[in-house]
Amino acid sequence: MLDHMGFGVTDFRRSKAFYEKALAPLGIGIVKEVPEREAMGFGAAGKPFFWIARAEGLKGHLHVAFAAENRAAVDAFHRAAMAAGGTDNGAPGLRPQYHPTYYGAFVLDPDGNNVEAVCHRPA
Q1: Is 67 exposed, middle or buried (0-12, 13-18, 19+ CB in 10 A)?
Q2: What is the CATH number of domain 5-119?
Q3: Taking CA atoms, which of 19, 50, 66, 82 is between 20 and 30 Å from 31?
Q4: Inter-residue contact 117 to 78 (CB < 8 Å)
Q5: Cβ 120 vs Cβ 99: under 8 Å
Q6: DSSP annotation string for 41-102
Q7: Buried b or exposed e, range 99-117, using 16+ CB within 10 angstroms
Q8: How far apart are CA 59 and CA 40, in angstroms?
Q9: Beta bridge partners of 33
Q10: How many other C-beta atoms lie within 10 A of the C-beta of residue 52?
C-alpha cells in the first residue's frame, strides 16, 4: 500500500500554485510546508501524501493519479488544472480500455508530469 509519493519540480512557486488550484476540487490541499527545503506536502485530513520539492536537473516525466469521489470532481479537476496553467493531456471522459466505468482526465503540470483524476464508480 502506498503511504506517500513525491517528485521534484523546477519552479517551486509555479508548481505550488498549480497543484493548490488543480487538487482543490478533489479535496486535496496543503498540509505541510518545509520552506527551508522548498518542499510541500498536499493531502487530506491532516495527512500529506503527495509531495513536491524544488530539484535541479530533472529528467523524465512521472504519472500520478488522484482518486475522485465522482465524475463531477474529475471534470472540476480538469477545469481547475487548465485554469492554473496546465496543458490538456486527455479531456474528462470514459476510458473503457481500462474498464467500463473508468472516468478520468489528464493534465500535464508545469514540468510536463502527467497528472490524472479518476473515478471508478458508475455514473
Answers
A1: middle
A2: 3.10.180.10
A3: 82
A4: yes
A5: yes
A6: EEEETTEEEEEEEE-SS--S--EEEEE-SSHHHHHHHHHHHHHTT-EEEEEEEE-TTT-TT-
A7: eeeebbbbbbbbbebbbbb
A8: 20
A9: 40
A10: 22
pLDDT in tens, 33-81: 999 989 999 999 999 999 999 998 878 889 999 999 999 999 999 999 9
What pLDDT digit, counting tens, does each position of 20-39 carry?
Answer: 999 999 999 999 999 998 99
Q: How many CA atoms lie within 13 A of 118 on its CB side?
A: 18
* 66 CB-side CA count, 13 A: 32
- Distance between CA 110 and CA 123 in Å, rounded? 31
